[in-house]
User: What shape does this take?
Amino acid sequence: MGHGWVFDFGCLVADANTLMMLIKNASVVGPEKVDLHDVRIEDDIIAEIGPALETRDGEKVIDASGKYLLPGFVDVHNHGAMGFDATFGSYESDKDEFNSDPQSFALKLETALGFYQSHGVTKTLLTTMASPTAQILTALGLIDASSSRLPQEIQKTLAGINIEGTFLKMPAYAGAQNPEFFADADLDLFDRLNQASGQRIKMLNVPPEHGATGLELISHARDQGIAVAGGHTGSSFDEFSTAVEKGLSLAVHFFNGPSRSSSKPFGGGGAEEAMLYLDDVSLELILDGYHVSPPYVRDAMARKGFDRIVGITDSMFVNGLSEVDSFRLAGLKGMVSGDQKYLHQPGRQDALFGSVLTMDRGYANLLGWLTHEMTGFWYRQHEALTLDQALVAASKMCSLNPAAQIDLAQNTGSIQVDKSADLILAEVIQTSKEFDLKIDRVFCEGMECTQTSAA
Assistant: This one.
């Protein structure tokens, strides 16, 4: 050590290729508990965790006293932000229309990924909507072409693509997707989409009511290591169960979509009953407090356990655009609420249209909901967790569980030796029953990708 050091992105570099950094005195939110520890980063890997680690000669040291070190957030369901939409490209607010010009697309993509990083997201899947086949092929090609040109610290956050809307089937369960653009469960179409994306598809929504062709598509995707979800579905419990046997493992934004629910015994009940009942199915939850009322969030956790909840944002392109109050997307109209906290369809306050949620806000919401007693709808009472317990649980739901869905849990999603240094350094601030997460630094694979306040 101690030779050939230069600075790069706030960290020291040994022999121009090894990043070296020591984060000291942090309250480290680990997989099971919170400890006051130091964390050493070598290159892009967490090399050592422990109390009072000895500083090495020439090593960059960050004093994290009074702050928490969290695993970076993993958002597997995110349509866009800051005027970028993964399906339609760059939004021009003065015209209320989108532009798929390659240069504009690439610039807006970079801006959106930077926005996610500033809110603690170190890995994300860009999520597409139901749209004309030509449009989605264009968008996937532009994501592929743009990604390799992104700055290195931005590029690290793009983990792949989530195809949500293309293979929806039943208009009654469309939600804020346009049934005009629904496609049959077709292997050739899926392969065309994946080829256009540069094989970047990591998650696929296949409603089980497609029957045999849908089951074939599920198996086809799983054979390629692609996670398969089910949502916006009118399937029965039995149909959903058969899809799970083929490899479906995730319920798309549970409680929303919508998906069929039935308390009657025919077909075993509805898809929502299967999502709750089957142990192999995890539940996506949009954590803004509008899509799912907090008592239902706690009820879902009580039924499935913290290990089977996947926190998501379902963020839309208007997230971060304070000047937009209404918009049109895929032939559908949307509005921003008066307080700019949620999106809805005109004339229907409770018909939501994606979100303007950020992951740090969702994580802070979880801390508030978990650290206070709450009366549920299905469960009479939920006990309060300690802050440390809530931090561990929230990090599972916002980092480790989504990483596991897309086969990244061996590399990211928790603070452990030999995992990628995808980390958030932040203050946790409590006011009454609410929490805020004040992010200080975000590290993507050891590289400092944003700094929101002075260290």
The mean pLDDT is 92. DSSP finds ten helices and 26 strands in the chain. The radius of gyration is 22 Å. Residues 5-71+415-451 form a domain with the Urease, subunit C; domain 1 fold (CATH 2.30.40.10).
